[in-house]
Amino acid sequence: MHFNASNIDQMEKRYRANFINALSGFKSANLIGSINQSNQHNLAIVSSVFHIGAHPPLMGMIMRPHTVPRDTLQNIKETGVFTINHVNIEHVAQAHHTSARFAESVSEFEQVGLTPWFSSTHRAPFVAESKLKIALEVQDIQLLALNQTELVIGQVVEVIVDETAVEADGYIDIEQLNCAAISGLDSYHSTSRIARYGYAKPDMSPEILSTTKE
Amino acid sequence: MHFNASNIDQMEKRYRANFINALSGFKSANLIGSINQSNQHNLAIVSSVFHIGAHPPLMGMIMRPHTVPRDTLQNIKETGVFTINHVNIEHVAQAHHTSARFAESVSEFEQVGLTPWFSSTHRAPFVAESKLKIALEVQDIQLLALNQTELVIGQVVEVIVDETAVEADGYIDIEQLNCAAISGLDSYHSTSRIARYGYAKPDMSPEILSTTKE
């Protein structure tokens, strides 16, 4: 089945949103915690978090100004901080619920049944139920002029994770932590490891490091 | 287990790469097909593809100039086109193998055992074995000054997918297509759907649209 640029352009709006959002493959399921200058906090599901670099440790996410997480973007601009909290497979319904259009004065934490938690050094709220919590400070916000979305780049300043999930080589076993994946706009998935592979070399097939949880 | 900014800064380089790359959660597993002006083609595994917008249909990926996919970036700059090919769970070893430092004159397709395929309208090669193939034209390349990586933004101009995977509302069931997910630098995963949820509303828990393949 072939779709060309013209076919895509002529798709009904909601159909196209589902179709194009699925093209980017499996995505991370994260709840973004933020807070404004009046200490009103906000929680929003985001599937656009991605890795930018390890040193310095930088993560990015795409924010669409006209969709629901706009309070999040406003808060991040006001306070310069946010948190990324991995969604557990047992909390996907609550996580998805944060995408509803709650009033700005409402805390999504209370509305969906998740618990705000604060570390001693970071102003933005974490999700207590999350098994991998990350605090970030904004380094840059770049406008993507093509469609007026904004790329938020944050530096990792704190990571809170179960010790058992951190392997000897630094890899964090997010599958063992029951982190969820997203596809499209609204589909949530659990995962099963196929394998970890060693550093690839030209003249041989990749070595399998592990296939099961360690 | 808490890690602060100083702990992260003091991690051994490879340990930090594994650790920070895992923080961004599950990621798409994609093979990027590209071609240079001499028609030498190139194939590289990339886990940084993400959704930017549906209308126009835009996808982004982060390229690190000093790591293996540098031929890909050079090719994209030369010809302005590339392909994104979802990795099937049965081809993850071949896909990972493309990350080896093959000589520039070598075709990764031949070396790892995948098949280049061309559509009638796009210059860059697709992966014949991939069940979801996407052709893109470069719209912009933005330097991320913080760490000198480059954000490549492409517009989707062609999509080739099994008809059975495209649902009535436009959602593409990438799990039914056996698309793989990645965590960290080298871990490959299959998925199991938990649920698709309906458009979230403030006053009720999200409606489950489907839990199994349709």
Task: Please characterize this protein's 3D structure.
2 copies of one chain form a homodimer. In chain A, 17% of the residues lie in helices and 38% in strands. The first copy, chain A, contains 5 helices and 14 strands. In chain A, the strands form 3 sheets. Chain A has a 7-stranded antiparallel sheet with strand order 4-3-7-10-11-6-5. In chain A, strands 2-12-13-14 form a 4-stranded antiparallel sheet, with no helix packed on it. Chain A has a two-stranded antiparallel ribbon with strand order 8-9. The radius of gyration of chain A is 18 Å and the shape is globular. The model of chain A has no long low-confidence stretch (mean pLDDT 94).
Strand content of chain A: 35-45%
Strand count, sense and closure of the main sheet of chain A? 7 strands, antiparallel
Structural class of chain A: alpha+beta
- The total of beta strands of chain A comes to 14
The H-and-E topology of chain A, N to C, reads as EHHEEEEEHEHHEEEEEEE
Distance between the termini of chain A: 41 Å
- Using only CA atoms, what is the Rg of chain A? 18 Å
